[in-house]
Give the backbone structure.
Amino acid sequence: MLKITAFAVLLLTLQAFSIGQFAGRESSAKITYPIRLAYIDRSTAWYGDKIAAGLGVPGYAQPHDYNFILLAFWSCAGAPKDMAMIWASAMTYFAQGNSFGNNTQEIQKALKKIYNAHGIKVLISAFGDSEFPTSAGEDPVACGHKLGQFVK
């Protein structure tokens, strides 16, 4: 039930962005319907440009119709996990000589440019099925701010 609720909140948040009502700010984000979301938790490649296929990057991955890519998992209690870990430390995994950039920020920017050119939005999944931050005593506001800093 929690995952269904979280997904519903995610969709409502996406709708808020599309109509410019989130946090009282105008937004240029526009949602393309229908929503086709790919949830990515694992990759068969953990090094070099082959990682781009696991991230669903057009031109590197098998052709797909997804317009949202959801990377798992951001963690409030520690470092990102799984595909979010690759995103957060892109240079570590893509390594020198990759096709996207010379540091994590350049790689992320290059990947986002490709996603955007194909109408794909990248999202982050938080917590997973093994982290319960408020039950563990985490301040929900502080946790939300940490997540905001991660996606910034």
Remarks:
- The longest strand covers residues 68-74.
- The two ends are 29 Å apart (CA to CA).
- The chain has two domains: 1-31, 34-151.
- Residues 1-25 have pLDDT under 50 and may be disordered.
